[in-house]
Amino acid sequence: MNVSAQEINKKIHDEAHNKEILINTCTREGIVSFPEFKEMYDPLYAAYIPDAATMIELKKLVKKEHVKIVFGTWCSDSKVNVPNFFKVLDALQFKEKNVAIIAVDGHKKAENGLINGLNIEKVPTFIIYDKKGKELGRIVEHPKTTLEGDFLMILKKKY
């Protein structure tokens, strides 16, 4: 399957929520410009301040990891945690090419088997991989501590 052949930032009508949503592979620009998501994204991103001490530790550990973000444009937890997670990634100067963003419908499904095998039960799910593609850990729905704190704990397990 050739991902480049898929429509990026595809919009569909979601029967589960009876509204237009994004589905499948998205870009950051695509999600921040999607009206329902943008409405909360901008103010939450601006307001989120990652914990400085945690970020210092995290910066020392971040190497060439990859992150997969599986979320729903319709989901209130996604609307809160995705902007905040991007704030953490930006503060880490995390390479955008190492971030995959996948939007799911109200049944937590994507098209073309895009999330098959990922065992997505709740959104958002942030999956952290090492540079070889091995899953190191995930943050599901909302963090246990903070997004940066959970990210740090996932990387600490690795080292």
From TrEMBL:
Domain Thioredoxin span(s) in chain numbering: 38-159
- Please give one Pfam family short name: Thioredoxin_9
Q: Which domain of life is it from?
A: Bacteria
Q: Which InterPro entries match?
A: Thioredoxin-like_sf, Thioredoxin_domain
Q: This protein is called what?
A: Thioredoxin family protein
This chain's source organism reads Pedobacter rhodius
